[in-house]
Design goal:
Length: 895
């Protein structure tokens, strides 16, 4: 039986409800597979294609469509026997309570259904239907029953109500088909209505258009499809819900067989949902053996839900263009053999699923688009301007790019087990590019790590080799070193840094290839970062020219080429890098205690010269204010291998206070007072691990008591409390990486006695003892690092000698030499990670000893106003400690 015969041998049988039925021929009578649910469809159930039939495919295309069209046309005469017919140009209104019957409307006729009206099947040909809150139903019959047929240029407007075919198709929007020149697209607009059919909820063919708003379309049968688009456009808007027993929607490739060129198949899911209960949300299929295109757009909160986990299933010989914008598609995309798809995740378009199958899928991800891979995926090409990430759940996954990888500013997230890696076993998500990486691309890599944070330098040679670490990205073709860079520059596993190491052509280890054979040019591997104590000043000896070529070495005693470094001259020492912020944390106790020492410096720095003050009464008072500035540099006492760090520190503070003075009969005095201070200190470590910066704010208060004997002997005691709060930033992570809080107390006892030298000069021996304790609050930083500094105690002893001239109180200069000894025990920092179940303890260093020279002056401007100031320079004694300058300027008023 030929296609021509198939198209001409339909028979219809009348039924009591007036509906037409198409007899289904057995498979032995039909030449090739006819798609189920063909709108108006070919009644043949076709068997496997024979070689003879394959040679007649062009004829099949016309005859299959003709079969489709004739089947739909045959429904009209069947209605004429048991239906109300509107002749060309006639109009009629069906009201609630009118007889329930079939309707055939032709030749620009118009049928109106008022609210509450009910009908059986309606067939429109070049006519108009306007239905509001009405019911159109057919019951019984076969899967080819049509409740509402909108054909050959007809227009239907449906608002509310119900359209239902118990066994067949609820709504069919199509051209009439048939002879040349007789095919015109039709359209239907559906708002707030429920459409259902046992076979298809709705179908669109022959260039028709269906537009819905807040509607519900259902293929109720177990093999039903919500909506089928053979040729035309279905636009689902404003919360429309489409569902089917198998697929929610099917885009069906077919030539329409009329005079209008094939407009393609378009499904637009605009703020609506398409759901397949047991199959894919959207299936793309062909009805005749020919390549056919389909277009699927999911926009403005649209959703595709596949009961089998597949959002879009593209069948053989079909091509689908898929666009997603402002929507999330949750489900896989599959492409069968000889199928292809082009997927674009546009503005805020997200795909959560995998791409698989034997077909070819190209993927483009715009700047605000994203793809979360839930399983191994393969794409023909990938343009990544947005984000691609591997889902956390389940096994580690691989993204294979058969062709080229392009994009600008894209981002990828990998899940990785940070074990030793190398040849012992690697467990990570991977990107495998079998083509080239665009020369202008730069993709930011984020790693979500798990594991114990093991050392990846398995041979302990202080570097990451090409078979060490964990391979995240491999490229068969061309690429470049900075094509992939870590977000923030590193991955933190507890206190340790892991960085991405790129191995290029001639550097890769072929045994590490995951590309399945063939070329292997680039390998980007995650491993521990190593740093050297010479930092950027490391200059290895040139291995090409170790010996002066003008005066070659005697060949009898050649220079050993394996050891170009001179004997006794050690090379750079390497160690594993810590996260960049850790040096700032480690130096916090010492830096904040430096601040405390600066604010409790001494009597002369706080009040100036107190021997020349005039009160005029036995009891007086005084107020003072002073500004303090300091710039210090610290040289470490711990080695580079023990994570010792130099640092720079700047201190700026303002202190104000006052007191009460009582004068005794011996012209001695006792004074008691208070002081408040506010200041900042900035600390910048010098660390090969990376740049970090800390800024602290300090607020303190103190009380003091000073006794001065008439002989000049004086004793000064100070007790204070202070709070610190500060933030640590790094170049790689930005601001607020860690926030430190500390509080503590300080105390100082100082004694001195001026002795005359003659000629208005005096010498004053001084001794001062200071102690302070800081209690740091535990905290967790941006890298998930738990920091515990605990309590830090420091004691300082100062022995000084001051020489001054006091004959002229208007300007009394002095100079001083101090020897300072500081002890702060063996302070430590604990850095750990709950997520990693790992951590370590680090020493924080000692301040050491120093000498200091000072020069200053006081000026008694009036009997009650005194200006005073001092500048100092100190330098450590030995190999470590503090050096730098400080200055103090103040004014005191007595009354």
């Amino acid at each position: 039986m030929s296609w021509n015969q198939c198209a001409r041998t339909f028979r219809t049988t009348p039924h009591g409800d007036g509906a037409a039925r198409l007899l289904e021929y057995p498979a032995s009578h039909c030449p090739a597979a006819s798609p189920p649910g063909f709108p108006g469809g070919c009644a043949c159930l076709l068997s496997k294609e024979t070689p003879a039939m394959r040679t007649s495919r062009p004829l099949f295309a016309r005859r299959a469509a003709l079969c489709h069209a004739i089947a739909l046309a045959l429904a009209v005469p069947a209605f004429s026997t048991h239906a109300r017919v509107l002749n060309p140009g006639e109009q009629y209104t069906v009201r609630a309570g009118d007889p329930v019957q079939n309707w055939v409307v032709t030749g620009n006729g118009m049928l109106t259904l008022n609210p509450g009206a009910s009908t059986l099947g309606i067939a429109l040909t070049t006519s108009t239907l306007d239905a509001t809150d009405a019911s159109i139903r057919t019951t019984g019959g076969t899967r080819f029953d049509l409740a509402l047929s909108v054909a050959n240029g007809s227009v239907a407007t449906i608002q509310g109500g119900e359209i239902r075919s118990e066994m067949g198709i609820g709504l069919a929007v199509t051209g009439q088909g048939g002879s040349e020149g007789d095919d015109r697209p039709s359209s239907a607009s559906v708002t707030g209505a429920a459409i259902s059919g046992g076979n298809r909820g709705a179908s669109v063919g022959n260039g028709g258009t269906l537009t819905t708003s807040n509607a519900q379309i259902t293929g109720t049968g177990s093999a039903g499809v919500g909506i089928e688009v053979d040729s035309g456009t279905a636009t689902l808007q404003n919360g429309t819900l489409v569902s089917g027993g198998t697929n929610g929607a099917m885009l069906f490739g077919d030539s329409h067989g009329g005079s209008v060129p094939d407009p393609g198949r378009f499904l637009i899911v605009d703020g609506s949902t398409v759901q397949g209960l047991t199959g894919a949300a959207v299936a793309v299929r062909y009805g005749i053996p020919t390549d056919t295109n389909a277009s699927i757009s999911v926009v403005n909160g649209g959703a595709l839900i596949g009961g089998n986990g597949v959002a879009i299933d593209v069948g053989p010989r079909m091509h689908a263009d898929v666009g997603v914008a402002n929507s999330s598609v949750v489900g896989n995309i599959t492409a069968a053999n000889l199928a292809s798809a082009s997927v674009n995740l546009g503005s805020k378009g997200v795909l959560v699923g995998q791409v698989s199958g034997q077909g070819s899928v190209t993927m483009g991800i715009d700047a605000t688009g994203g793809w979360q891979l839930t399983g191994d995926s393969t794409v023909a090409a990938l343009r990544l301007d947005g984000e691609a990430s591997f889902a956390k759940a389940g096994d580690y996954k691989a993204l294979n790019v058969s062709g080229d990888f392009t994009g600008t500013g894209g981002r990828m997230t990998f899940n990785t087990l940070l074990n030793a890696g190398g040849t012992e076993g690697q467990f990570t998500d991977r990107l495998l590019v079998h083509g080239n990486v665009d020369a202008g691309s730069k993709t930011i890599i984020s790693v979500v790590p798990t594991g114990e944070g093991a050392l990846t330098d398995t041979n302990r040679d202080g570097r990451v080799d090409n078979n060490e670490g964990i391979s995240l990205i491999q490229v068969a073709g061309s690429s470049h070193e900075n094509a992939f860079v870590l977000a923030g520059g590193y991955v933190a596993a507890g206190p340790w840094q892991y960085t991405l190491h790129g191995f290029g052509p001639g550097q890769v280890d072929p045994s590490q290839s995951e590309l399945g054979g063939g070329d292997f040019q680039w390998d980007y591997r995650l491993g521990n970062r190593y740093v050297s104590d010479c930092g950027d000043d490391c200059h290895p000896v040139d291995p090409v020219d170790p010996v002066d070529p003008v005066n070659p070495v005697d060949p009898v005693t050649p220079v050993d080429p394996a050891d170009p470094v001179l004997p006794g001259e050690p090379g750079p020492v390497d160690r594993v890098a810590v996260v960049p912020q850790l040096p700032s944390y480690m130096l916090a106790p010492m830096a904040l205690q430096n601040y405390g020492n600066t604010l409790s410096d001494g009597l002369h720095q706080r009040l100036g010269e107190i021997r020349d003050s005039a009160y005029g009464v036995d009891v007086g008072g005084e107020v003072f204010a002073r500004a303090i500035g300091s710039q210090l540099n610290y040289s470490r006492n711990l080695s580079f291998q023990r994570y010792g760090y130099d640092f720079d520190q700047q201190i700026n503070a303002l202190q104000v206070g006052g007191g009460i003075v009582a004068v005794d009969d011996d012209q001695g005095s006792i004074r008691a007072g208070w002081a408040l201070d506010h200041g900042t200190t900035r600390v910048t470590p010098s660390a090969a691990d990376g740049n970090s910066h800390a800024k602290y704010y300090a607020n303190g208060g103190s009380i003091w008591v000073t006794y001065q004997h008439g002989s000049g002997l004086w004793v000064d005691g100070v007790l204070g409390v202070r709070r610190f709060q500060g933030d640590v930033s790094t170049d790689l992570r930005g601001g607020d990486v860690g926030r430190l809080r500390a509080q503590g107390w300080t105390m100082s006892v100082e004694v001195g006695k001026p002795l005359p030298l003659g000629g208005d000069w005096t010498v004053e021996p001084q001794f001062q003892f200071r102690a302070q304790q800081l209690n740091f609050r535990d905290f967790r930083d941006k890298d998930g690092l738990d920091i515990r500094l605990g309590n830090s105690v420091q004691t300082t002893s100062r022995l000084g000698i001051q020489v001054g001239r006091t004959a002229n109180p208007v300007l009394a200069p002095y100079g001083r030499l101090d020897l300072i000894h500081t002890s702060n025990g063996n302070p430590t920092l604990s850095a750990s990670s709950e997520a990693w179940n790992t951590g370590d303890t680090f020493q924080t260093g000692n301040t050491g000893n120093a000498y200091r020279v000072a020069a200053g002056a006081t000026s008694q401007l009036t009997d009650h106003v005194q200006l005073y100031g001092e500048g100092t320079w100190q330098h450590y004694v030995g190999n470590y400690g503090l050096k730098g300058w400080s200055a103090n300027v103040g004014v005191r008023v007595t009354f």
